[in-house]
Amino acid sequence: MSKRLLIMAAILLLSVPAFAAVENIKVSGDINEQFVLRDMSLGGVTGGERYIPMDAESYLLSQVRLRFDADLTENVSGVIRIIDERMWGSNHDYDWADNGYETSYDDIGIDLAYIELKEFLYQPLSVTVGRQNLRYGSGLIVADPDTNMMTAVNNNETPFGDLSLKKSFDAAKVVLDFAPWTIDAIYSKVNGNHTYIHDNTNLWGVNANYQWGSFDGVTEAYYFGAQNNRDGLLYSKVNTQIPENQDITHVIGARTQFNPMEKLTLGLEGAYQFGDVQDLTAQTYTALDTPAQHLRAFAIEAMAEYRFMTKYNPTLGLTYVYLSGEDDLDKNHFTGWDPMFEDQSLGEIANILFPNSNIQGARVNGSIMPREDITLGASYSFLKLANNINYTAGANTYEIPLGWYGGVTYDVNTNDTYLGSEVDAYATYDYTEDVQLKLTGAWFIPGDFFADTNDDLAYSVRGGINLNF
Asked: What is the pTM of this model?
């Protein structure tokens, strides 16, 4: 793709009146420009030339989205959104190859492109087909096709993958609206670069949502399944995350959230996973030839937020997360939680260093508005392994999972579970209704899990401006 894609899309949408009765065409978008300064080496890392950015990195990032909403005949609409994410001074993506960076002028892409049919054949039924956002509940299971920690399905292994705004799935969605009940059924081809059956990643599921008549409450129950036959993506067996080339993962769960009083919000979510995963003890990259283990994993999340309803609008929140892990890779079943397509984080840096698996953590966060146009916020997170890792002899290193930083190795202590603590802080200034300035900082203090060679402070500082129109 090139910039011609943008021009062609605009011409196509402006030409719609020649083909259909257009009730309305709306153009909207946003521009986000920010400076990023990071150091996540923790004192030094092992890795090739590719991993030098872990030592210290700074860049300017531009993210631009342009959206067209077209209302056609009654109950028929279409949406196209174009996205461009790139570092300043760069006109290409960052795809890795053995001989270095591959230049690919493929930055401008389609973020959204779907058709929506309301009251399709039956008044409560609507159908949406095409590239669309899918997010259910708190984002524990389905929200981001490549998760938000740079695992390089959509983000092409860019160094800013965790900051990417790309969240869309190629999917078909059917919605039955029996208010206060809403039932969604989805099917998505998350990864299908080739026509081979065993090179695809498929997602399917059903989500039932019930809106309470009081307390601003919501309860939902869901089932999602994923077939993840991605050969060649076997993680190091000393990682906290399970391999991506597993066979099938099933997950059932439920979530509820309500306000028992105007000032207080409470939420709870629990989920259980079962299925078959790749055998971590087999050092092979061919999913079809490797024996599988039975998956038995679970997750629990609880949250509370209190709004003081006084001057400066102070808030105080508490979140607890437990995602099961595996402590013995030689068993015939695996208990490590599969992150699937999550979009969650207990901290900006922790989100890069650790996957949403074999981890438990608590976060306290708060915010205040000293002025109507200024918001200040901060959080503190405490992170541990859910289960200590049963390392093989001599394996006392931790390797970050796939993505831009994948392959970076830290020295660790094999008998400790305390990963570390993180402090995040931010300040936003609403310059106008459409323009916002924001400064964000994050500092990660390594815990006893990291050896003395990797116990230095990690940090991330970002500042930028955002325009919505």
From this structure: 0.84
Low-confidence ranges of the chain (pLDDT < 70): 1-23, 45-55, 91-107, 150-158, 192-199, 228-246, 278-292, 327-332, 389-395, 399-407
Residue 41 is predicted with a pLDDT of 83
- The CATH architecture to which 3-468 belongs is Beta Barrel (2.40)
The domain locations on the chain are: 3-468
Residues 6+ away with beta carbon under 8 Å from 181:
208, 209, 210
pLDDT tens digits for 152-205?
444 445 677 789 899 999 999 999 999 999 999 999 998 765 554 555 788 999
> Hey, what are 217's tokens?
């409450």
Strands 24-39 and 458-468: antiparallel
